[in-house]
Amino acid sequence: MSDSTTDFQIAPSILSADFARLGAEVDDVLASGADIVHFDVMDNHYVPNLTIGPMVCEALRKHGVTAPIDAHLMVKPVDRLIGDFIDAGASYITFHPEASEHIDRSLQLIRDGGCKAGLVFNPATPLSYLDYVMDKVDMVLLMSVNPGFGGQSFIPGTLDKLREARRRIDASGRPIRLEIDGGVKVDNIAEIARAGADTFVAGSAVFKARNEADPNRYDGVIADFRRALAEA
Ligand SMILES: O=C(CO)[C@H](O)[C@H](O)COP(=O)(O)O
């Protein structure tokens, strides 16, 4: 396992949050120990669902969220939204390579805007898209479900793909984060970590697990994730 996996980060996907009280939900999940806010942007074109855009990202910053915001663009075309998310205060901007006309240009646009850049791989998208752009990538995000909806089951074949992505990242010698997204639960997170992931997106597993004693807190499930990771 790579040294970078000692720095595990938990990134709740706000796709499963209560959108009517989003600012409070994000505050609560961060106060409960989450590291990153995973922000799913769906356009009803690249994926069959429609969610939120840069205005909501900006609103979270104005609300006072200072934690990293990881904007996962499930959109096509990609480039016209990159500037908007830079201006809105995103920290990471990731996109699907097959949705970009010019992958190198999209990565460069993100980095020129001062954000960290990442490529996202659907379950059947080959990692060869990393060839020739590894030096411009700060995050590799592997989808372990087909994108578009929360609450799906983890696709087991993603574990082999994680091992291959970890091998490529370690060979690059660069501090690239390896994020996994889809069907991450307390009972599979250790196995996913052993396969090489260091950043874990979890939507339904977090937001459906409010503390019994305090419905505005998620400490219990975040602590369960950390315990499972400590044993990985
Ligand atoms: O990008 C996504 C779907 O496209 C979501 O982030 C992902 O599915 C997380 O939800 P869950 O943890 O419930 O599987």
UniProtKB/TrEMBL annotation:
Pathway: Carbohydrate degradation. Substrate binds at S13, H72, G148, F149, G150, G151, D181, G182, G183, G203, S204. Catalyzes the reversible epimerization of D-ribulose 5-phosphate to D-xylulose 5-phosphate. A divalent metal cation binds at H38, D40, H72, D181. Belongs to the ribulose-phosphate 3-epimerase family. Keywords: Carbohydrate metabolism, Isomerase, Metal-binding. It catalyses: D-ribulose 5-phosphate = D-xylulose 5-phosphate. Its cofactor is Co(2+); a divalent metal cation; Fe(2+); Zn(2+). The gene is rpe. Signal peptide: none annotated. This is Ribulose-phosphate 3-epimerase. Gene3D superfamilies: Aldolase class I. The active site is at D40 (proton acceptor), D181 (proton donor). Its EC number is 5.1.3.1. It is an enzyme of class 5 (isomerase). PANTHER family: RIBULOSE-5-PHOSPHATE-3-EPIMERASE. Binds 1 divalent metal cation per subunit.
